Model the fold of this input.
Amino acid sequence: MILRKMKVKNFRLLKDFELEFKDELSLVIGKNNCGKTSALIILDKMLNSSKVMWEDINLECQKELYEKIIAFDISEQEKVTSLETVNLQLFIEYDENDSYANIQKFMMDLNPENNIIVLEFISLIAAKKIIELNNIISEKNIKDLKSFSKFMSKNFANFFETKKYSRGFDVEANKITQDRSEEIDNKDIQKVIKVVGIRADRAVSNDDRNHVLSGLTGKYFSSYKAAKDESESVFTRLEEKLEEADKELYKIYNGEKSEGEEPIDGIFSDVIDVIKTYGGAENGIDIAIESSISEKNLLSDNTNLSYRQGVDCSLPETYNGLGYLNLIGILFEIETKIQELFEQPADINLLYIEEPEAHTHPQLQYIFIRNIKSHIKAHRNKLLKEKNKQLQILITSHSSHIVSECNFDDIIYLKKNGNTVIAKSFNSLKEEYGGDEQKGFKFVKQYLTINRSELFFADKAICIEGDTERILMPMMMHKIDSKEKPKADLIPLLSQNISIIEVGAHSHIFMPLFSFLGTKVLFITDIDSVKAEKKIDKNGKERTVYTSCHPDEGTHTSNASIKEFFKDTGIDILNNQFKELVGKNAEDKIKDNMRIAYQIPESDGEYQASSFEDAFIALNKDFILKNKEGLCEYGALKDFSNDEIENGDYYNFALNNVKKKSGFASSLLYFDDENGEEDEKWTVPHYIEEGLLWIR
Done:
């Protein structure tokens, strides 16, 4: 039995939300404030009887609800019995190997092909309560949504309630029917599905006064004992030791009297003797202070977690970093929660862990996700074998390190779409690549795993070709911000969450990925001029070949990314493709959330470049001449005569004189004087400037 899907309406950001669960591990990722926590909270609230609050209702729904309430007519209560707000639907899938004992109450038809039950949780206000609320609105002179929200924030529970139902499901149409059961009891639901979890706001601290981890040992012991046979030797030994301790403490408290020996006073002997003088002994009443050490109190109040240092030394828990404290806390909580589930499991047991990466360095994050999968798998197999019950895991994260260690089939990507949130299975990205695993999809999976899982969490991305742009991009972004200050509502480029990725000549392979993610992306690439020539091959047939050439002679581009970007315009079949590309305006280079930037005329529109180097040199000739000696000494450029650059043939100058592209780029950083004269600082090529202004 598996929790297959959840649908949510009107809960916080989740206006109309759907999430499909994986059989074992679902890794839910996304940027901050994209609804990851909301998805966990609504499960917790609806299944564990936590109260829905007014603030939980989606803002649009709040407005609609207010308008419906103030417009409600008493005569309508026969037609409109209630108004709904938050709605959660859980789709549970079963097969012939599962027990029907707990789910039979929720089966809405006898169709043998239907293996889906749907549980529905609704927060609503009944018609009579609407009328009552309407009257209060009039009495209190509530005139707007703001005042209404303030009132509802304090009084929501007086008017709204949560109802739970089973819904009919049409397996052929794959949708819910209008059939709805009588209200169902939460105890019956808990037999079918339980949700337990570890929230991100875990109270780990390295404050000397805080001993959270030590306190967790008591919780773990309680759950461990409940799940085990109390006759086991470990519990027998514990009881024996506690009894021995009680006897020794009795002597220490009350004193010890042995035949033939002087009595030994105890801690409380004096006060007991005083009490006896008040007549207690004459009446045959004697008192004593007895020790009663309970297992629970022993562990919760008198047990400390410590870190061993060598053989003889140990340090308290607070003397370690928050990363390890967090990790140990998670592991203790996982074990405790799973032991509790083992004690009385439901058919489906969902354990969620929210943001396990808190306070931990990247390597520890790798270790955690790598080990936790096998760790929980062992528990899952045990629960299935011994109890025939399912354990599903839901982890939310915004750690690229955790993502890179996970199977991409487990990933569910959450992103904002207007005023709501959508969930996408990463495996569905394959469809963006035409369903062909062996083409771009496989390459992108490997690339993201090894290099750039951070793309999942970036607000924007800049794809560049190689070392030159990678080295210079931060400085170019800085120059753009300095040259043209952003408007009040814009954030400087260097302060934005922009991921810069080096993709070589493979930008086009990433286009379906960015379409899938919805991330705003700028592709910076070279126009790479080539000319078409007719040649006779070895078989005597005339063929068209394309060879690199000066941009003045260019008829086409060899850049696959440019051709892919403009493929819908038929540009690839044009006789003078190069001229067409050069003539495109800024708007032509934008497609949905993507923009491409390649060389455009530099030096006041006189020179059309083919690569970054000749575009840069054309625009910054004076800077090159000013720093000639240093650039040559640095090894960025070969020794050259001024005429070579003065004649305006920047393509051949770059081709013949740039020694190494990465060395050329780093030298530009070294010799740039931001506060110097015009010829002591360089300018960003126009095509890159246009692109950076767009993405800003």
User: Anything to note?
Assistant: The first helix runs from residue 36 to 47. The two ends are 48 Å apart (CA to CA). The CA atoms of residues 69 and 130 lie 6 Å apart. The domain at 1-195+345-417 is CATH 3.40.50 (Rossmann fold).
